[in-house]
Every structure is written in C-alpha cells, then in structure tokens.
C-alpha cells in the first residue's frame, strides 16, 4: 500500500471524556483508526471495538488508569478521519503498579513517517511519569509461522511470530523482548451434539458426585461473589506467563461488581459457569464468555481456570462443555468463539482441540524495561 506523506501532531485525550465533550471526536477517531488496524491484521471485524466501549472504559478507572494519545492530521475541522494513529496505555492501580500495557497503532497508509515512533515515545513517557519500570504490549498475527529464519521464537521456547511483519520489526527496533506467544483458536458453532455428549458424559463420570456446575449471566449471584473473586485472584498467576513480570492481582467482591458494571457499560454481556465442590460448598473452577456489543454471531472466550488442588478430575472439560450448552440456550445465534492460550499451556489447548477449536493465528506478548 502506498504511503501518504502528511503533517500531523500528537494530542493527548483528557483522562475522563464523555461523548458530549468537545474533544469526543478524538476518541471516535481513535476507535475508527484502531478498528482499521485490527481489520488489516486479522482480516475481519470480530475484534473491533465500539465508541460505547471506549467512552465507558474512561468512566471506569478505579483499578486501571487509562491514558490515550492520538496522531492527528493538520486541519481545521474536528473530523474523526484526521486521526491516523493512537497509543493506548493501561496503568494498573492496585497490584502490578510497576508495569502496564501499551497498544500503539498507525493506519497502514500513514506508516513510515515517524508517527508510530512518536506515539511509542509518548506512551513510554507517560508510563515513566507514572512510576512504571516495565511495560507490556501485544502483536497480532493471522498466521503462526513454522520454525525457521522467517520466525521469531518466544523466550519460553514455545510459539513463534512472523519476523517480517511490521509490528514485529517495530517492537524489536524499539527494544521489546518477545516473552510469550499465545495461540489464537476458533470454534465454529454449533458443535456436533455427539461430540459434546461424549465429552460431557466422560467429564461427569470422572468428576463424580462431589462436583456440580452452576451458571449465570451478567451478574454473579451474591452467594458466590466472594468465592468468584478468589478464583479471579488465583487466575492472575495460575496461567503460564512466560517471562512477563506480573504478580498476583488481588480481587474482592467490590472488584467483581465493578468489572461486571464495566462490561455492561460497554454494551457487553457475560455468560459464565463454575464448578462447585459440593462437600466444601466452594467454587473450584470457572469459565467465562464475553458477548460483545457489535456482533450477534461472535463471542470471546475469557478466563478458564481449575484450581490446582482440584485438577485431574476433568473439571476443565466439564465447565467448558457447560458453557457451550448454556451459550446454545441463551445465544443460539452465535456462530464462532475465539480463545487465546499460551503455547505452553498444553492442558487447556488439549481440551480446546478436543472440542473442535482450530488454530487461527497467534499473539506475541512483549515486554520492555523502561
């Protein structure tokens, strides 16, 4: 694609912004630019964002401070089309206050002019000013390459990203280290009922009478909210993290409720199932699906966790099948699910493959020391 040479400036968005504010067009432009970048990377709009999501996120900053910088073409009109690049910064406020997450993107036709580098420097400057010593970022890839000179392998030794893609070259040129590769897998619905029946029966037999599934939509029942918070805390460090410098992220009931309201404010809905250990009356596993506001046919797979002390009883398969059963009842129009798993997370990958998930690209997890 030919590059367009233009003049531009960087503008930081206000920390809190509503659709009625004078600078709201900058946020609208950011959303549109980011969606164009996502579309160029993945070839579809399943992972697109909405203005409602973006504005809602800026209203929910109790646990994460959100900074936004955009590259704007010179001009007189407040036109969202003038936004050609962005930097999104997520700075954790309760735990992991030494780090954060950065997302930098530039429209393909405006690359090669230093816009990405300027946005990257702005993000790092804001992070340093906030006392951060590390940052994380991601690169998205529609295809995971085979091993060889055209691939970069994560520091874990598992998973690769294409060495020649612009995002990889940019990350390496700016001092980022590829710490982990996460496989993106997709499941097309409906799943063969016989496949589900086989896995459901085998999981129930292995789990036995000591375990039962409980499910809900959107709001966790009050009786489970404290235990669900504990599961979220355990989730923060239970999954493989490669070389990412991430510590335990402590949740409580208030955070569960705040996060639920954030999802609802974004126009999203939650479909969740958990496994109760009946003798103790405690939740020991869970799985979450997120229904985005922009599509009736697509959902994200969120977290899935089985507590270490209850593994080996096929509870992961039990709760995943329960989720597919529930989704078919409450969202029968959904046709595809996307999930992400570290390449070294062999147990969860095996469950997903057995259910019919197939690889469709990968995500590089990068880290930089500031």
UniProtKB/TrEMBL annotation:
Molecular function per GO: acyltransferase activity, transferring groups other than amino-acyl groups
Entries under InterPro entries matching the protein: Acyl_CoA_acyltransferase, GNAT_dom
Pfam families registered for this protein in UniProt: Acetyltransf_1
Residue span, N-acetyltransferase domain: 31-202
Region (Disordered): 139-164
Keyword Hydrolase set for record: no
PROSITE patterns named among the record's database cross-references: GNAT
Keywords for this protein: Transferase
The keyword DNA-binding appears for this protein: no
Protein name, as recorded: GNAT family N-acetyltransferase
Organism from which the protein derives: Cellulomonas shaoxiangyii
Phylogenetic lineage: Bacteria, Bacillati, Actinomycetota, Actinomycetes, Micrococcales
